[in-house]
């Protein structure tokens, strides 16, 4: 099971996160729901990368699974900002989302595999992949229309920043909607 941690942020990190959080909160108030994930994606591109965003502790990964550090949780539970640390070879399960999301590759590079939902078979079928280099960002809506799997195939650690439309305490349980892979 993946466990989220709350690691202390640096002073610079708190300031940057405050700016990003305020921009996302404004976007939630002003943006139609169908455009919100892309608007948050644009906010991440506009504000990141940023020097001092993560503390040394927030850059730590775990040997056996990717690590999730909660960086900011909106006080009314509208969204949560999370740093994911990926050591070489680490990956997510194949999943859609229970909520909207946006992410930014802060360091390193990631691979994103895409899958199409087969409602008759109730499983996911591979349909492509894309490289996500440092500085790239992506977003998706809730549901099974944008199923994916993220992985770090490089020899170096990668770090990504994710924003989910869920409150902080539920980020470990109410984000990923796991999908079974279709038999070969």
UniProtKB/TrEMBL annotation:
Annotated GO biological process: L-cysteine catabolic process
GO molecular function: cysteine dioxygenase activity; ferrous iron binding
UniProt-listed SUPFAM superfamilies: RmlC-like cupins (SSF51182)
Superkingdom of the organism of origin: Bacteria
Transmembrane segments: none
Alphabetically ordered keywords of this record: Dioxygenase, Iron, Metal-binding, Oxidoreductase, Thioether bond
Amino acids binding Fe cation: 95, 97, 148
Cross-link for 3'-(S-cysteinyl)-tyrosine (Cys-Tyr), residue positions: 101-164
Cleaved signal peptide residues: none
Pfam families with a match to the protein in the record: CDO_I
Family as reported in the entry's similarity comment: Belongs to the cysteine dioxygenase family.
Listed name of the protein: Cysteine dioxygenase
Organism, scientific name: Achromobacter aloeverae
């Amino acid at each position: 099971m993946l466990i989220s941690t709350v690691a202390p942020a640096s002073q610079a990190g708190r300031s940057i996160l405050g700016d990003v959080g305020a921009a996302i909160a404004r976007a939630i108030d002003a943006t139609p729901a169908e455009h919100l994930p892309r608007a948050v994606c644009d906010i991440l591109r506009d504000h990141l990368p940023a020097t001092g965003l993560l503390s040394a502790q927030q850059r730590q990964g775990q040997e056996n699974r990717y690590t999730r550090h909660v960086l900011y949780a909106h006080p009314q539970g509208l969204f949560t900002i999370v740093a994911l640390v990926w050591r070489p070879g680490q990956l997510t399960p194949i999943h859609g989302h229970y909520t909207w999301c946006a992410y930014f590759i802060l360091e390193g590079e990631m691979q994103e595999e895409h899958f199409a939902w087969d409602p008759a078979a109730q499983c996911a079928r591979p349909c492509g992949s894309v490289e996500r280099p440092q500085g790239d960002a992506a977003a998706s809506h809730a549901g099974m229309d944008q199923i994916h799997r993220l992985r770090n195939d490089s020899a170096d650690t990668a770090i990504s920043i994710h924003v989910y439309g869920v409150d902080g305490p539920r980020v470990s349980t109410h984000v990923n909607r796991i999908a079974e892979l279709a038999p070969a």
